[in-house]
Specification:
Strand order of the largest sheet: 3-5-4
Structural class: mainly alpha
Family: Belongs to the KdpC family.
Strand content: 5-15%
Protein name: Potassium-transporting ATPase KdpC subunit
Number of helices: 6
Membrane topology: Single-pass membrane protein
Organism: Streptomyces millisiae
Keywords: ATP-binding, Cell membrane, Ion transport, Membrane, Nucleotide-binding, Potassium, Potassium transport, Transmembrane, Transmembrane helix, Transport
Shape: elongated
Order of helices and strands: HHEEHEHHEEH
Number of domains: 2
Number of strands: 5
Length: 197
């Protein structure tokens, strides 16, 4: 009986080692290799580069401040926002007084910064995404910011609005989702216009 148990244990151990090598090493290496060949940019995290160095991922939003940059939507990911290790929403319901007050504060701040009436501020300028890391804003929010950015950089507003139009992505497959603008890509293109960092 003991000899049979040892044989079964040895067979189980050999199977464990074989499956560990196959599924724990060879299969992941094969998937990585195919991804590198077929989707190199995406497989490496969709990194965006500026002047030869990676400055972020086009898949993860990041904070931009100052009058001379397009701003992303608010983020609830971490205390400072845009923390990929703290991805998530605020989980506050639509009638929560804290959320209502925060939306009101954001509406007033964006309206003042963009010099528009509060009723012209789009929803994505007021609320964070479910992940808190959304890299996109609506074309309406990007167009709203264009005059401020142009003024701060001394650029023609028409040129900046054209840049927004050039970086507006359509719906997925022509009918899914909404049009969107990737803030990082737009700001990198903006930096290329006047050479600012």
């Amino acid at each position: 009986m003991t000899r049979q148990l040892l044989r079964q244990a040895a067979a189980g151990l050999r199977l464990l080692l074989l499956l560990t090598v196959l599924l724990g090493a060879l299969y992941p290496l094969a998937v990585w290799g195919v991804a590198q060949l077929a989707f190199h940019h995406r497989a490496d995290g969709s990194l965006a580069h500026h002047q030869g160095r990676a400055v972020g991922s086009t898949l993860i939003g990041q904070r931009f401040t100052g009058r001379d940059w397009f701003h992303p939507r608010p983020s609830a990911a971490g205390p400072e926002g845009y923390d990929p290790l703290a991805s998530g929403a605020s989980n506050l319901g639509p009638d929560n007084p804290t959320l209502a007050a925060e939306v009101g504060r954001r509406r007033a701040a964006v309206a003042k910064a963009e010099n528009v009436p509060e009723d012209r501020v789009p929803a994505d300028a007021l609320t964070a995404s479910g992940s808190g890391l959304d890299p996109h804003i609506s074309p309406d929010y990007a167009r709203l910011q264009a005059d401020r950015v142009a003024d701060a950089r001394g650029l023609d507003p028409g040129t900046v609005r054209e840049l927004v139009a050039d970086h507006t992505g359509g719906r997925v497959l022509g009918f899914l989702g909404a049009e969107r603008v990737n803030v990082l890509e737009l700001n990198l293109a903006l930096a290329g216009l006047d050479g600012r960092e």
